[in-house]
Amino acid sequence: MNQPTPGQPAPVPVLALGDVLLVSLQGELHDGMAEQLQHDITSRIATNRVTGVVIDISGVDMVDSFLGRVLAEIASTASLLAARTVLAGMRPAVAITLVELGLTLPGLVTALDVDRAMELLSQRGS
Where is the STAS domain (predicted)? Predict the structure, then answer.
């Protein structure tokens, strides 16, 4: 994994659990980090046998319109590459903010926690 340059935040880790990628967002995700995450996930899906992506946002206090768009784009790109994306751990305040911003996050399935997200991905037929 590339080391961050001085003054730059560390990249968001993307863990492989079998054929599922698990991404756990913690704290604030700056625009550059969100774009890098999108690129990293897309690359991993394209080069590995990934069938699902779980993005855990339980550690995120706020989702702005940019991050909402990036999450939706990750789901759309993953879908084009035959992988399903589940957004897990959304806090009520984040859900309210997304609704207030008018963001619908097309292509994203949600789950209350990572365990339920993994269950959803294991149900291949749905």
Answer: 10-121
pLDDT means over runs of 10, the chain (126 residues):
50 91 90 92 94 95 87 93 95 90 84 96 72
Task: Give CA separation, 7 vs 35, 38, 80, in Å.
Answer: 18, 21, 35
- The DSSP 8-state label assigned to residue 43 in this structure reads H
pTM of the model: 0.87
**What residues does each domain of the chain span?**
17-122
CA distances from 20 to 29, 76, 98, 105, 119 (A): 22, 16, 26, 20, 11
| The CATH fold of domain 17-122 | Transcription Regulator spoIIAA (3.30.750)
At 98 the pLDDT is 87
Give dist(CA 123, CA 94) in Å, integer. 27
CA distances from residue 71 to 1, 2, 4, 93, 108 in whole angstroms, order as listed: 22, 22, 22, 17, 8
Helix (H) or strand (E) holding 17: strand 14-17
